[in-house]
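Re: How this chain folds, sequence and tokenised backbone to follow
Notation: Tokens come from a learned vocabulary of local backbone shapes, not from coordinates.
Start of record: The labelled sequence and token lines come straight after this line.
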Amino acid sequence: MEPILPASRMKFDDVAWDRSDAIYAAWKKKLFNKDVFRKIGDFIVKHRRGPPDELFSPQKGAFNLIFRMKFRDGGSAIIRFPIPGISVFAEEKVKREVSVMRFIERHTSIRVPHVLHYGMTEESLAGLGPFIVMEYIENDADMGDALNTPSLSVEERCVLDPDIDEDRLRSVYSDMADILLQFSRKSFDQIGSITNNEEGDFDDEWVASHRPLTINMNELVQLADFPAHLLPQTTFKTASAYFLALAEMNMTHLSIQRNDAIDSAEDCRRKYIARCLFRKLARENRLCSYDNGPFKLVCDDFRPTNVLANSEYGYKVVGAIDWEFAYTAPAEFAYSPPAWLLLEQEIEKRETESIKRGIMSEDDCLSQRMRESWQTGDFWVCYAARRSWAFDMLYWAKIDRRFFGEGDLEDRFQLLTEEERNGIDEFVHRKMAEKEERRLRE
């Protein structure tokens, strides 16, 4: 069925984005002097130990900046700092990632960097903020390189190489599938970020005891000027409660983002109605099938470029990095195919092998559930709930008619509560006034 309305992605707030860039630029100025570099090098040596050889220039990732120290014994270690202005919840992010990496080390065969030391702002070097000192996993490529069209530059979006060798493609798919299966195997009784008793080296009881920290939450504060205190602050005992929290968050996003949120009064009305209807589905518990779990580990940032490899050995996996946005989530999230690639066939092969070897049960399988998620449209529900700026495009194209059938925008308006219908004109008027204020400032 054709969507009622075409819709595009909501734009980032350019004012908030500029503010984010300014914070990063001011922080970056602290880095580039010899004294800071020397302190950083000495700090890495203190926690890794051994005769140092070379401190490399810093490298910037999407959320972090790293310094790598090579040692004379051939090994390396890095110190990684969340980037101010980009990583909004820096201390929380560091704590949650350390916990997840320790869990992965103990409960899977996935190689992750071993954490040597981590600290908060009070232990910071030269005011650079919280950090993690960890081992460096030697690599010369990642799985993105293995799949990408060779002619594309580093700055261009990755596109699957149409001439890729089939054996390499199957190998990459298989290795990625294995990581997904291992990561999602354990179940938890709540939705949130996991931890254990960090003081007890032998404590292996892991629980979701903190709120789920997501990429979307980080970006809402960074790029929409979303007040941090209005984000979820607790764990969740049911999937329906979490879906409702995400639906409320998407509505609050539209209400609060002052710049670049709407194109016109009609656009604002469409966005308001879409969010009200998605919230209605959440309130009626129509968005999830596994309300009481199992809750599975997912990582918002799991993608080929975060899986390290060596090209000279056929791009075999040597490790996986960047686990800061990993948390336990509704099973629907884990059962959705990865947005960057459909892996059901290779996952099914891995599942069969693992069941034969006795290292997983049929209850842990993902392939059939991923196929069902794609066929039913649950994939789009989960993606829209987790990605605020893509919400409108996904809602009207993939979600609305599935739940509400034929009709037009007026039909959809009548499905709103009386309070929502009565409030729409005032909402649109306020958003249009904010849009005019922006125009006058420019």
Summary: The CA atoms of residues 214 and 336 lie 17 Å apart. The mean pLDDT is 90. The chain has two domains: 31-136, 141-441. The first strand starts at residue 52 and ends at 55.
